[in-house]
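Sample pair:
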Amino acid sequence: MEELTGDETNLSIEQSFDVNGAPRLTLKGELDISTVETFRTAIEQVIDSGPKLLVLELEELTFMDSSGISVMVLATKHIDQVELRHASDIIRRVIDVTGLSEILRVDPS
């Protein structure tokens, strides 16, 4: 397990694996223009390992702007399935309204 921290310390990302061995990134804090490079770095590391599934654990993500969404979309171009788990209602609405629910799987939990 490795933890990355954003420059502004508003975002931390813990890298681990889910029970099926898929890479999992647990995001805590705020994902915005000031912290997105930390997220992009973590995504690029996962992409380099060539998984078919990436799990993004969002239970402790308190804010996300369009820069975070763009990196999630980038991930879908290299990984067959990107699954968002424990997304807040507002993040779910943003994904639905933007039409990204077609490419980002939002776990109903």
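The chain has three helices and six strands.
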